[in-house]
Design brief:
The protein is built from 11 helices and no strands. The protein is mostly helical. The chain is globular, with a radius of gyration of 17 Å. The relative contact order is 0.13. The protein has helices at 7-21, 28-38, 44-56, 63-89, 101-120, 127-149, 155-177, 185-205, 207-210, 223-243, 251-257. Keywords: Plasmid.
Length: 267
């Protein structure tokens, strides 16, 4: 198990790697990529990579883990931009998005490419397996966009297959780089997907009070149903976390996700 690092310290390290990945931000489309990444300063997914890794690793987190954290945050930015673009181009949706579609498309492509470049810089001997996990997330995102805006899949499934998929990939990449065995992979995948979906739903429900912009979901949704969906994911993720308590150092991860707790609504 690894020595503790504060969330603030780790966020600073992830931010520095993101700055390096986005150093060409003088170009307009790449400037949009940089501002999109900056619009999500919590580094939820990057922290999830590092904390999942720390839960089972025998050695302290290395530069490889921080590079992987940055990679997942870049893919998060890609997901946000693609979602905004598709909402903007959907004729049947009311929205306030007025950006240049061409710039959004180029910026999204840049973020997607930069995510793979950042992960490749990790240099870990489990890199190939981690790369496969990142590819799986990318494929899930593409399928989700197709399902939502071509076949009109429901909003809950869209959240599961976008933010949920990124969260699952973050946790799996973290334990993969730690040399994690497959017996624990399913539980880490469940907690990554569940907590991340619940986290995004919490942001959507609190948008009016905390300023969060719900760009990963359509602007119209059933509040009660969305809350129930988030609560179910939170319970499933919590159970998965509990199953890991005998074989992993889960307390830092538990403390991190407990920021989702709500005395009135359960998450």
């Amino acid at each position: 198990m690894t020595p503790s690092t504060t969330l603030l310290e780790r966020r600073g390290e992830i931010d520095r790697r993101l700055e390096t990945a986005l150093e060409r931000a003088d170009e307009h489309s790449v400037a949009l990529a940089a501002s999109t990444v900056d619009a999500c300063p919590d580094r939820w997914y990057g922290q999830l990579v590092a904390l999942s890794h720390a839960a089972i690793a025998d050695k302290p987190a290395s530069d490889a883990i921080l590079s992987a954290s940055a990679a997942v945050e870049l893919l998060r930015g890609y997901c946000r931009l693609r979602t905004e673009l598709l909402i903007q181009l959907a004729d049947n949706r009311a929205h306030s998005l007025t950006g240049d579609p061409a710039n959004a498309l180029l910026a999204g492509d840049y973020l997607n490419s930069a995510a793979y470049t950042a992960l490749a810089e990790a240099g870990n001997h489990h890199l190939e397996d981690a790369l496969q996990a990142l590819i799986a997330v990318s494929e899930s995102l593409v399928d989700a966009f197709d399902a939502k805006y071509v076949r009109s899949v429901d909003d809950h499934s869209f959240l599961d297959d976008t933010v949920g998929s990124i969260g699952e990939g973050a946790a799996v990449i973290g334990i993969t780089l730690a040399g994690g065995d497959t017996t624990r992979k399913e539980d880490f995948a469940t907690l990554g997907r569940g907590f991340s979906t619940a986290y995004q739903i919490r942001r959507i429900l609190n948008a009016d009070s905390d300023g969060a912009v719900p760009t990963i979901a359509p602007p119209r949704f059933d509040t009660a149903a969305l809350r129930q969906h988030g609560a179910r994911h939170f319970r499933e993720a919590t159970h998965a976390l509990g199953r890991l308590s005998d074989s992993a150092d889960i307390e830092p991860l538990r403390n991190f996700v407990n920021t989702l707790c709500d005395q009135d609504n359960g998450f």
